[in-house]
Structures are given as structure tokens and as C-alpha cells.
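Sample intake sheet
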Amino acid sequence: MLPEEIIVGPVVTEKSNDEMQSGKYTFEVNRNATKVEIAKAVEKLFEVKVKKVNTMTVKGKTKRVRYKEGKTSDWKKAIVTIDTNPAEQTYLGKGGKTVKVSKKYKDAIDEFMGA
């Protein structure tokens, strides 16, 4: 699946706005997407480093219009925790030399609410 097909849209609520300060962003995602696919899609679309992904299936509600009862569809929600302090990573290379890897990651998702 393409990253655009995995991430359906942001979920904007009071709780999700409060969690944005700690680096947690809430998205509506495709029901067939896995946590690994969600993490890769968020990293590719928003150029951030994903630390953790929590997913849950939200059950649809029963709605009533006049005398008819119906049910809204179930959907999948993902809470993505990003790295708010991306640092350079170092490891030992060939010959015992220290090698630094500095990838350019953002520390917030600016496009989350259309900003």
C-alpha cells in the first residue's frame, strides 16, 4: 500500500491536541494497515522519526433517523509517538572508527492540522 492510502486523515479532538505537546499524534488509518506500515508511512510523509505506534479499532455507533436504525462503520485509529529530540547516532565502523549518522528529522508534524 502507498503511504497516502494508509493514512486517511488526522483525528482532531481535545485529547489529541493535548497529547501533541508530548509528541503523540492521532491518525485515522486504513483498517488493514499494520503498525510497521503505519510507522513507515508517517516517516515518509512527514519526515519525522517514529518511536512507537499504538493502534485500536473504534467500533461504530448506532444511529437513528426517525424510525430507521443504522450503524456507522468501524474504523482504525493509530496514536503515533515521534522522537521530539532527534540526535545523531554513532556506531563503530570498520577498523574501530566511530561513525556518525545524522539524518535530518523534524521534531514536530507541522502539517497535522493544516498549518
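Comment: Residues 35-46 form the longest helix (12 residues). DSSP finds three helices and eight strands in the chain.
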